[in-house]
Protein backbone atom coordinates (compact mmCIF):
# COMPACT_ATOMS: atom_id res chain seq x y z
CA UNK A 1 0.00 0.00 0.00
CA UNK A 2 0.90 3.68 -0.29
CA UNK A 3 0.14 6.67 1.92
CA UNK A 4 0.11 10.45 1.77
CA UNK A 5 -0.04 13.15 4.43
CA UNK A 6 -1.16 16.64 3.54
CA UNK A 7 1.28 19.26 4.86
CA UNK A 8 -1.52 21.84 4.93
CA UNK A 9 -4.39 20.14 6.77
CA UNK A 10 -2.68 16.98 8.08
CA UNK A 11 -5.12 14.58 6.41
CA UNK A 12 -3.75 11.05 5.90
CA UNK A 13 -4.97 9.00 2.93
CA UNK A 14 -4.24 5.46 1.70
CA UNK A 15 -3.54 4.89 -2.00
CA UNK A 16 -2.85 2.00 -4.33
CA UNK A 17 0.82 0.98 -4.38
CA UNK A 18 1.15 1.98 -8.05
CA UNK A 19 0.88 5.66 -7.05
CA UNK A 20 4.12 5.63 -5.01
CA UNK A 21 6.34 8.49 -6.16
CA UNK A 22 3.51 10.50 -7.68
CA UNK A 23 1.51 13.46 -6.42
CA UNK A 24 -2.16 13.39 -5.46
CA UNK A 25 -4.60 16.11 -4.46
CA UNK A 26 -5.63 15.99 -0.81
CA UNK A 27 -9.22 14.72 -0.56
CA UNK A 28 -9.88 17.18 2.24
CA UNK A 29 -8.39 20.49 1.06
CA UNK A 30 -7.16 19.84 -2.49
CA UNK A 31 -3.48 20.57 -1.83
CA UNK A 32 -1.00 18.60 -3.97
CA UNK A 33 0.54 15.91 -1.74
CA UNK A 34 3.37 13.42 -2.36
CA UNK A 35 2.53 9.70 -2.17
CA UNK A 36 4.98 7.43 -0.32
CA UNK A 37 5.39 3.70 0.21
CA UNK A 38 3.69 2.96 3.56
CA UNK A 39 6.65 1.01 4.99
CA UNK A 40 9.07 3.81 4.04
CA UNK A 41 6.76 6.47 5.51
CA UNK A 42 6.22 4.61 8.82
CA UNK A 43 9.96 3.84 9.12
CA UNK A 44 10.90 7.50 8.72
CA UNK A 45 8.17 8.55 11.15
CA UNK A 46 9.44 6.00 13.69
CA UNK A 47 13.03 7.26 13.31
CA UNK A 48 11.87 10.82 14.03
CA UNK A 49 9.82 9.70 17.04
CA UNK A 50 12.62 7.70 18.67
CA UNK A 51 15.17 10.47 18.01
CA UNK A 52 12.92 13.03 19.70
CA UNK A 53 12.19 10.66 22.59
CA UNK A 54 15.89 10.04 23.14
CA UNK A 55 16.54 13.78 23.15
CA UNK A 56 13.71 14.31 25.65
CA UNK A 57 15.01 11.55 27.95
CA UNK A 58 18.48 13.11 27.93
CA UNK A 59 17.00 16.45 28.98
CA UNK A 60 15.08 14.99 31.89
CA UNK A 61 16.52 15.42 35.37
CA UNK A 62 16.61 11.94 36.94
CA UNK A 63 14.85 11.52 40.26
CA UNK A 64 16.60 10.01 43.25
CA UNK A 65 14.88 6.64 42.75
CA UNK A 66 15.52 6.44 39.01
CA UNK A 67 19.15 7.39 39.50
CA UNK A 68 19.61 4.42 41.81
CA UNK A 69 17.86 2.15 39.33
CA UNK A 70 14.99 1.30 41.69
CA UNK A 71 11.25 1.87 41.43
CA UNK A 72 10.13 2.12 45.04
CA UNK A 73 6.40 1.61 44.40
CA UNK A 74 6.02 0.51 40.78
CA UNK A 75 2.22 0.18 40.92
CA UNK A 76 1.92 3.84 41.90
CA UNK A 77 4.56 5.22 39.56
CA UNK A 78 3.51 4.36 36.01
CA UNK A 79 1.16 2.50 33.70
CA UNK A 80 3.02 -0.65 32.66
CA UNK A 81 1.17 -0.70 29.32
CA UNK A 82 2.18 2.80 28.27
CA UNK A 83 5.56 3.89 29.58
CA UNK A 84 9.26 4.13 28.81
CA UNK A 85 10.13 4.33 32.53
CA UNK A 86 11.92 0.97 32.36
CA UNK A 87 13.98 1.94 29.30
CA UNK A 88 17.06 3.22 31.08
CA UNK A 89 20.53 2.03 31.94
CA UNK A 90 19.81 2.71 35.62
CA UNK A 91 16.81 0.37 35.66
CA UNK A 92 18.89 -2.41 34.07
CA UNK A 93 21.92 -1.84 36.31
CA UNK A 94 20.99 -4.32 39.09
CA UNK A 95 20.43 -7.08 36.53
CA UNK A 96 23.77 -6.36 34.87
CA UNK A 97 25.48 -6.40 38.28
CA UNK A 98 23.83 -9.72 39.18
CA UNK A 99 25.23 -11.37 36.04
CA UNK A 100 28.62 -9.78 36.74
CA UNK A 101 28.76 -11.74 40.00
CA UNK A 102 28.46 -14.87 37.82
CA UNK A 103 31.41 -13.70 35.68
CA UNK A 104 29.02 -12.99 32.79
CA UNK A 105 28.87 -9.71 30.88
CA UNK A 106 25.27 -8.62 30.28
CA UNK A 107 24.48 -5.97 27.65
CA UNK A 108 21.09 -4.33 27.98
CA UNK A 109 18.66 -3.57 25.16
CA UNK A 110 16.90 -0.74 26.97
CA UNK A 111 14.27 -0.18 24.26
CA UNK A 112 13.09 -3.80 24.56
CA UNK A 113 11.09 -2.92 27.69
CA UNK A 114 9.53 0.25 26.27
CA UNK A 115 5.76 -0.27 26.38
CA UNK A 116 4.67 2.98 24.71
CA UNK A 117 3.89 1.03 21.54
CA UNK A 118 1.18 -1.57 21.04
CA UNK A 119 3.16 -4.83 21.07
CA UNK A 120 2.49 -5.43 24.76
CA UNK A 121 -1.29 -5.06 24.47
CA UNK A 122 -1.45 -7.40 21.47
CA UNK A 123 0.77 -9.94 23.24
CA UNK A 124 -1.39 -9.98 26.36
CA UNK A 125 -4.48 -10.50 24.20
CA UNK A 126 -2.88 -13.46 22.40
CA UNK A 127 -1.49 -15.07 25.54
CA UNK A 128 -4.69 -14.62 27.52
CA UNK A 129 -6.74 -16.52 24.90
CA UNK A 130 -4.07 -18.48 23.06
CA UNK A 131 -6.37 -21.37 22.18
CA UNK A 132 -8.41 -19.02 19.97
CA UNK A 133 -6.14 -16.11 19.03
CA UNK A 134 -2.99 -18.18 18.67
CA UNK A 135 -4.35 -19.35 15.33
CA UNK A 136 -4.26 -15.78 13.99
CA UNK A 137 -0.67 -15.39 15.14
CA UNK A 138 0.32 -18.71 13.55
CA UNK A 139 -1.37 -17.87 10.21
CA UNK A 140 0.52 -14.58 10.07
CA UNK A 141 3.81 -16.25 11.03
CA UNK A 142 3.32 -18.91 8.34
CA UNK A 143 2.63 -16.27 5.69
CA UNK A 144 5.77 -14.40 6.74
CA UNK A 145 7.89 -17.55 6.42
CA UNK A 146 6.53 -18.25 2.94
CA UNK A 147 6.90 -14.58 1.93
CA UNK A 148 3.17 -14.32 1.23
CA UNK A 149 1.64 -10.87 1.48
CA UNK A 150 -1.59 -12.12 3.08
CA UNK A 151 -3.36 -15.11 4.62
CA UNK A 152 -6.91 -16.19 5.46
CA UNK A 153 -8.54 -16.70 8.84
CA UNK A 154 -11.41 -19.14 8.42
CA UNK A 155 -14.56 -18.53 10.44
CA UNK A 156 -16.97 -21.18 9.10
CA UNK A 157 -16.36 -23.67 11.92
CA UNK A 158 -16.25 -21.11 14.73
CA UNK A 159 -19.01 -20.30 17.19
CA UNK A 160 -20.66 -16.88 17.07
CA UNK A 161 -18.79 -15.88 20.23
CA UNK A 162 -15.45 -16.95 18.77
CA UNK A 163 -16.15 -15.18 15.47
CA UNK A 164 -16.95 -11.99 17.34
CA UNK A 165 -13.75 -12.28 19.40
CA UNK A 166 -11.62 -12.98 16.31
CA UNK A 167 -13.11 -10.05 14.40
CA UNK A 168 -12.50 -7.70 17.32
CA UNK A 169 -8.90 -8.90 17.75
CA UNK A 170 -8.07 -8.61 14.04
CA UNK A 171 -9.59 -5.12 13.94
CA UNK A 172 -7.42 -4.24 16.92
CA UNK A 173 -4.33 -5.48 15.09
CA UNK A 174 -5.27 -3.19 12.19
CA UNK A 175 -5.96 -0.21 14.45
CA UNK A 176 -2.50 -0.66 15.98
CA UNK A 177 -0.87 -1.05 12.51
CA UNK A 178 0.29 -4.61 13.23
CA UNK A 179 -1.38 -5.66 9.97
CA UNK A 180 -1.74 -3.55 6.84
CA UNK A 181 -5.36 -4.41 6.08
CA UNK A 182 -8.16 -6.79 7.03
CA UNK A 183 -10.83 -7.73 4.49
CA UNK A 184 -13.94 -9.52 5.72
CA UNK A 185 -15.72 -11.87 3.32
CA UNK A 186 -19.12 -12.60 4.87
CA UNK A 187 -20.14 -14.89 2.01
CA UNK A 188 -17.06 -17.11 2.24
CA UNK A 189 -16.90 -16.72 6.04
CA UNK A 190 -13.28 -15.68 6.25
CA UNK A 191 -11.08 -12.66 6.89
CA UNK A 192 -8.07 -11.89 4.70
CA UNK A 193 -5.20 -10.39 6.65
CA UNK A 194 -2.72 -8.32 4.62
CA UNK A 195 0.67 -8.39 6.31
CA UNK A 196 2.62 -5.46 7.68
CA UNK A 197 6.27 -6.04 6.73
CA UNK A 198 8.09 -3.77 9.17
CA UNK A 199 10.92 -5.85 10.74
CA UNK A 200 9.69 -5.29 14.31
CA UNK A 201 6.21 -6.52 13.35
CA UNK A 202 7.64 -9.59 11.62
CA UNK A 203 9.66 -10.42 14.74
CA UNK A 204 6.59 -9.97 16.91
CA UNK A 205 4.55 -12.61 15.10
CA UNK A 206 7.60 -14.86 14.66
CA UNK A 207 7.85 -15.26 18.44
CA UNK A 208 8.50 -11.93 20.16
CA UNK A 209 4.86 -11.79 21.22
CA UNK A 210 5.50 -14.50 23.83
CA UNK A 211 8.42 -12.53 25.29
CA UNK A 212 6.20 -9.45 25.53
CA UNK A 213 3.52 -11.55 27.20
CA UNK A 214 5.94 -12.96 29.80
CA UNK A 215 7.32 -9.49 30.50
CA UNK A 216 3.88 -7.97 31.03
CA UNK A 217 2.66 -10.81 33.26
CA UNK A 218 5.77 -10.39 35.39
CA UNK A 219 5.35 -6.62 35.60
CA UNK A 220 1.69 -6.94 36.56
CA UNK A 221 2.49 -9.34 39.40
CA UNK A 222 5.38 -7.16 40.63
CA UNK A 223 3.01 -4.22 40.82
CA UNK A 224 0.32 -6.23 42.57
CA UNK A 225 2.83 -7.46 45.17
CA UNK A 226 4.49 -4.03 45.39
CA UNK A 227 7.98 -5.51 45.30
CA UNK A 228 11.21 -3.86 44.28
CA UNK A 229 12.41 -5.20 40.94
CA UNK A 230 14.58 -4.71 37.90
CA UNK A 231 13.80 -6.36 34.57
CA UNK A 232 15.25 -6.93 31.12
CA UNK A 233 14.23 -8.31 27.74
CA UNK A 234 16.46 -9.26 24.79
CA UNK A 235 19.59 -8.80 26.91
CA UNK A 236 22.81 -10.24 25.46
CA UNK A 237 24.92 -12.46 27.72
CA UNK A 238 28.63 -12.86 26.99
CA UNK A 239 30.43 -15.76 28.71
CA UNK A 240 34.19 -16.05 29.43
CA UNK A 241 34.39 -18.72 26.72
CA UNK A 242 33.33 -16.04 24.18
CA UNK A 243 29.95 -17.72 23.84
CA UNK A 244 27.03 -15.34 23.47
CA UNK A 245 23.33 -15.93 23.92
CA UNK A 246 20.23 -13.78 24.10
CA UNK A 247 18.19 -13.74 27.26
CA UNK A 248 14.43 -13.53 26.63
CA UNK A 249 13.03 -12.14 29.90
CA UNK A 250 14.67 -11.66 33.30
CA UNK A 251 13.48 -10.23 36.61
CA UNK A 252 15.54 -9.54 39.71
CA UNK A 253 13.17 -9.33 42.69
CA UNK A 254 14.21 -7.43 45.81
CA UNK A 255 17.81 -7.42 44.48
CA UNK A 256 18.22 -11.10 45.35
CA UNK A 257 15.69 -13.39 43.63
CA UNK A 258 16.47 -14.07 39.92
CA UNK A 259 13.67 -15.15 37.55
CA UNK A 260 14.92 -16.40 34.20
CA UNK A 261 12.14 -16.87 31.61
CA UNK A 262 12.92 -18.50 28.27
CA UNK A 263 10.04 -18.14 25.78
CA UNK A 264 9.35 -20.64 23.01
CA UNK A 265 6.53 -20.24 20.49
CA UNK A 266 7.95 -23.06 18.35
CA UNK A 267 10.19 -26.10 18.79
CA UNK A 268 12.34 -26.13 21.92
CA UNK A 269 13.42 -29.76 22.40
CA UNK A 270 16.77 -29.68 20.62
CA UNK A 271 18.06 -26.98 23.00
CA UNK A 272 17.00 -28.54 26.29
CA UNK A 273 20.55 -29.63 27.15
CA UNK A 274 21.71 -26.01 26.80
CA UNK A 275 19.03 -24.79 29.20
CA UNK A 276 19.92 -27.49 31.74
CA UNK A 277 23.58 -26.44 31.60
CA UNK A 278 22.71 -22.73 31.78
CA UNK A 279 20.56 -23.17 34.88
CA UNK A 280 23.43 -24.94 36.64
CA UNK A 281 25.88 -22.31 35.40
CA UNK A 282 23.74 -19.51 36.86
CA UNK A 283 22.87 -21.43 40.06
CA UNK A 284 19.20 -20.55 39.70
CA UNK A 285 16.62 -22.60 41.59
CA UNK A 286 14.51 -24.93 39.45
CA UNK A 287 11.32 -22.99 40.26
CA UNK A 288 12.90 -19.74 39.08
CA UNK A 289 14.32 -21.02 35.78
CA UNK A 290 11.22 -21.05 33.61
CA UNK A 291 10.55 -22.25 30.07
CA UNK A 292 7.29 -20.76 28.82
CA UNK A 293 6.20 -22.86 25.83
CA UNK A 294 3.00 -21.72 24.15
CA UNK A 295 1.84 -25.07 22.78
CA UNK A 296 2.34 -27.30 25.83
CA UNK A 297 -0.62 -28.48 27.90
CA UNK A 298 -0.55 -28.67 31.69
CA UNK A 299 0.31 -32.38 31.83
CA UNK A 300 3.22 -31.93 29.43
CA UNK A 301 4.50 -29.03 31.52
CA UNK A 302 4.37 -31.12 34.67
CA UNK A 303 6.15 -34.08 33.08
CA UNK A 304 8.92 -32.03 31.45
CA UNK A 305 9.53 -30.12 34.69
CA UNK A 306 10.13 -33.40 36.52
CA UNK A 307 12.44 -34.71 33.78
CA UNK A 308 14.69 -31.70 33.19
CA UNK A 309 14.97 -29.89 36.53
CA UNK A 310 13.40 -26.68 35.19
CA UNK A 311 9.88 -25.30 35.39
CA UNK A 312 7.82 -25.60 32.22
CA UNK A 313 4.70 -23.43 31.89
CA UNK A 314 2.35 -22.29 29.14
CA UNK A 315 0.56 -18.97 28.68
CA UNK A 316 -2.20 -19.98 31.09
CA UNK A 317 0.03 -21.21 33.91
CA UNK A 318 2.89 -18.66 33.76
CA UNK A 319 1.12 -16.14 35.99
CA UNK A 320 -0.04 -18.84 38.40
CA UNK A 321 3.52 -20.05 38.83
CA UNK A 322 5.03 -16.58 39.29
CA UNK A 323 2.51 -15.89 42.04
CA UNK A 324 3.99 -18.74 44.07
CA UNK A 325 7.53 -17.34 43.99
CA UNK A 326 7.25 -13.99 45.78
What can you tell me about this protein's structure?
The protein starts with a strand and ends with a helix. The protein is α+β, with helices and mostly antiparallel strands and 326 residues long. The radius of gyration is 22 Å and the shape is globular. The longest helix is centred in the middle third of the chain and has 27 residues. The relative contact order is 0.10. Strands 5-9-10-11-12-13 form a 6-stranded mixed beta sheet, with helices on both faces. The chain has a 4-stranded antiparallel beta sheet with strand order 2-1-4-3. Strands 6-8-7 form a 3-stranded antiparallel beta sheet, with helices on one face. Helix 5 crosses helix 6 and helix 5 packs across helix 8. It is built from 11 helices and 13 strands.
Amino acid sequence: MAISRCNKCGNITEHERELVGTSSDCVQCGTATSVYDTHFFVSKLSDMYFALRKELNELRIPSKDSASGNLEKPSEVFDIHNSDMLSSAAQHAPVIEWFKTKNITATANVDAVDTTGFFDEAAVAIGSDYELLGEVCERIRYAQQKEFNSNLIYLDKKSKEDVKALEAFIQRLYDHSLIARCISNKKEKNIRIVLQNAPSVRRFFAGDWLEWYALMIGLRICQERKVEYSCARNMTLSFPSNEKRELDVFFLINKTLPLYIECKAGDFRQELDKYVALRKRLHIDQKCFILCVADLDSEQCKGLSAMYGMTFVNTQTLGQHLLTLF
